[in-house]
């Protein structure tokens, strides 16, 4: 199995993922459950949306004192005015996404590892997601593709037993499906065979691609964390004169970290997105309350509603478990992402930040 990491690194386990340089080919079926695996790095594109909020009061504690957007990596579209967004994205769009994410057939089971899978472990899932983040970066896929890919994987694993030898096949087949849904010029089947060191044939990848579509009942377009993150990022910066790239990228980083952790499967995408905004604001200005009445109105979530997810993301941000899976961190340590992975937050979030906000 190829890794997308271009620079050589010491072998730390039986899984060594290397891309363009020829390396020893290893497949995911050779994995042990030892968490000693290391790995790396994509440009984000935002098309922000903002649902209408009846409470148009000031954004208390709004974090707008950061660097201005730079060059071609600007993530927010500057062509939409507040009036345009109100017209285009009134409550109906956000409500529609919220209704869709609640539909049972669009959600993975939160306990599928315990109730469905026999061979695949939570750590194997982490390794797979870590590797797919590298693949997405190598092929310059848009961020929506990786979110859809992981959603497809979790939904598939919720109803189908997959052997350890087929987990990588499932991963590349889900990414092939997601690429065809999201990308203008998606990688072809041969690319995904190559990235696995030809561990699987073209026919095997295509067969699994069709099987994924069948199991998901061809419902390939579903709300993801990224959809909600676009909306909430714009809402969080409403009082800023211009978009804040560092703020946006930090939110992207925290949201992408959630893909690695099986514990986050139980949270709705909108909850993860809102929690990423909460933690972004806390990271940038820890002395200020991370939430506001305006954000509560936009998202529909009170601070207490987000507490469990925020604390889970916070554990991931400060790497409380000491995970060696570093693809997301290394990706967001790059200058084009403003090195947001280097930003840290206090080790504890004050309990008062999760209390009810009064108007």
Keywords:
mainly alpha; about 350 residues; Cyclin A, domain 1; about 0% strand; 2 domains
Which structural class should the secondary elements be placed in? mainly alpha
The CATH class name of the largest domain reads Mainly Alpha
The number of distinct helices, counting runs of at least 4 residues, comes to 14
**What's the assembly state of these chains?**
single chain
CATH superfamily of the largest domain: Cyclin-like
Mean pLDDT figure: 79
Helix content: 40-55%
Low-confidence stretches: 5-26, 33-85
Number of domains: 2
CATH level 3 topology of the largest domain = Cyclin A, domain 1
Share of residues in strands: under 5%
Helix-strand sequence? HHHHHHHHHHHHHH
- Major sheet size, sense and barrel closure: none
Q: Would you report the number of β strands?
A: 0
What is the CA-atom radius of gyration, in angstroms?
Answer: 20 Å
């Amino acid at each position: 199995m190829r890794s997308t990491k271009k620079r050589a690194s010491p072998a730390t386990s039986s899984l060594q993922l290397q891309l363009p340089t020829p390396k020893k080919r290893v497949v995911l079926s050779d994995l042990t459950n030892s968490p000693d695996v290391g790995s790396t790095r994509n440009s984000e594109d935002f098309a922000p949306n903002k649902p209408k909020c009846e409470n148009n009061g000031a954004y208390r504690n709004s974090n707008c004192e950061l660097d201005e957007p730079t060059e071609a990596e600007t993530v927010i579209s500057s062509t939409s005015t507040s009036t345009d967004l109100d017209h285009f994205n009134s409550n109906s769009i956000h409500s529609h996404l919220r209704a869709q994410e609640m539909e049972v057939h669009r959600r993975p089971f939160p306990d599928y590892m315990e109730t469905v899978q026999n061979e695949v472990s939570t750590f194997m899932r982490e390794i797979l997601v870590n590797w797919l983040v590298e693949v997405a970066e190598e092929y310059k896929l848009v961020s929506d593709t990786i979110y859809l890919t992981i959603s497809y994987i979790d939904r598939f694993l919720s109803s189908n037993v997959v052997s350890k030898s087929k987990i990588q096949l499932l991963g590349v087949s889900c990414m092939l499906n997601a690429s065809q849904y999201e990308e203008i010029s998606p990688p072809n089947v041969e690319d995904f065979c190559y990235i696995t060191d030809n561990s699987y044939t073209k026919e095997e990848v295509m067969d699994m691609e069709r099987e994924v579509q069948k199991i998901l009942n061809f419902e390939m377009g579903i709300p993801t964390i990224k959809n909600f993150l676009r909306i909430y990022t714009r809402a969080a910066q409403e009082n800023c004169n211009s978009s804040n790239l560092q703020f946006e990228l930090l939110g992207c980083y925290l949201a992408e970290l959630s893909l690695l952790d099986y514990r986050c499967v139980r949270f709705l995408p909108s909850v993860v997105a809102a929690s990423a905004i909460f933690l972004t604001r806390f990271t940038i200005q820890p002395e200020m309350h991370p939430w506001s009445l305006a954000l509560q109105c936009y998202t529909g979530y009170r601070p207490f509603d987000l507490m469990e997810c925020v604390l889970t993301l916070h554990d991931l941000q400060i790497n409380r478990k000491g995970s060696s899976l570093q693809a997301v961190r290394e990706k967001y340590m790059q200058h084009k992402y403003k090195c947001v992975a280097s930003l840290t937050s206090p080790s504890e979030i004050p309990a008062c930040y999760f209390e009810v906000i009064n108007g």
